[in-house]
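Changelog note: in this version the structure field was regenerated for every chain. One regenerated record is shown below for reference.
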Amino acid sequence: RYNDHLSNFLFLGVDKKEKVKKQNISGNGGQADALYLLSRDRVKNTISVLAIPRDTITQIQVYDLHGNDLGKTEDHISLSYAYGDGMHKSCTLTRDAVSELLYGVPIQGYCALNIDAVPILADSVGGVTVTVPDDSLSGEAAGFVPGSQVTLNGENAEFFVRYRDIEEDQSAIGRMERQKVFLKAYGQRLKEAYSREPSIVGDILSAIDPYMVTSIGNDQYLKLVDSYLTAGETASYTVPGKGAREDGFDEYHVDEDALYEIVLEIFYEEVNE
């Protein structure tokens, strides 16, 4: 049965370099280039994170340029955000697409960040030191070779989490691995900073507010940070599947059986009758 002790929050990275503002034409809202569903068990005090590749093919709601409802179609999950208004409608469209992908798992809140928030996040904790996981950046900037340690800040954090070679098949998957490395290292730095100065969470939220759309209250963010401080190792998953190239575009086709098992593991409890 579904675990009613869970609070599920969707975090999105949007490919727009500006402060958030309402878009009046469908298709101008930007794309959700990064999608992570965080699940917090309020009783067990555990956290799980499910990464969703941006090119995942699934059912999304679509509209024409005038905002007329065209129903649902199978397309990249990242585009679900674009059909909204660049604000809450975009978030709810993507939230609904993710929920449907995960067999109806409820999502209690969302947070979407435009790309200009990334340098602010990195600098807010005094920089984030990561170990470069692969060679996807080695030809683009000095020092970003596999296994090297690099400190990310306002100058280079965006490059690390955003760059991909669009001429290379499935480059978004490699980029997602770098994003995971950044998020894990950032969480550790935030944990250290929060233990010294709990007010840092509020300071960060204020700093990124112009670049953020969220339905999550500050009290819920604080609970998430508190859980992270005491939960130990966060369980990490990725939607399982296989990449393909169709009509010149990358696609990611979900392994439904494997995904079903992951959904059961994260969101459900076994019942002994």
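Spot check on this record: The two ends are 12 Å apart (CA to CA). The helical segments are 79-82, 88-101, 117-124, 157-162, 171-196, 200-208, 218-231, 256-267.
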